[in-house]
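Write out the 3D structure for:
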Amino acid sequence: MTDQSRNPPDERVLTAAAQRGDQAAFGMLVQLHAKRAYAVARAIVTVHEDAEDAVQEAFVRAYQALDRFNLEQSFGPWLNRIVANAALDLARRRKVRTTDELHESLAGSFRDPGEADELRRRLGEALAQLPERMRSVLVLHDIEGFAHSEIGKTLGIPEGTARSDLHHARQRLRGMLRDLRND
């Protein structure tokens, strides 16, 4: 284990260096935050490729806005907000997907009769039926482990709204997947 892997560089030092034009420092910030950024994007857009596109767009936006970043703040939440906005923008642009595409993707999941695949398929369908913000809150909290306050900051909603959305999203999922409990 190298010294750098045990003691990662200070985020504020990297951010300040990136603001001065140090592209390697920005590259290190990208490496530090790429997984979390992807998780935020994937919570909003359910397609892997869309999440990757949103993350890439967000890093470009963050780089372009670095001069406006306040070094007194933490870089991660600021970046997550940019990621969420990029993902929401992408979701809005791609909202109108043809029903044929949806039916083709669902039909492909029927080929494997395994129980785990059926559960995964049903869960995916149920998540897709949730309103975008509810789905985002649910995935960010229950899968990615974000705190309610982090979700609120990331999605630009009050913490109480994040809690409420999570509660309602779980209720809806339970209702949609109720029959699985009886199988």
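Residues 23-44 form the longest helix (22 residues).
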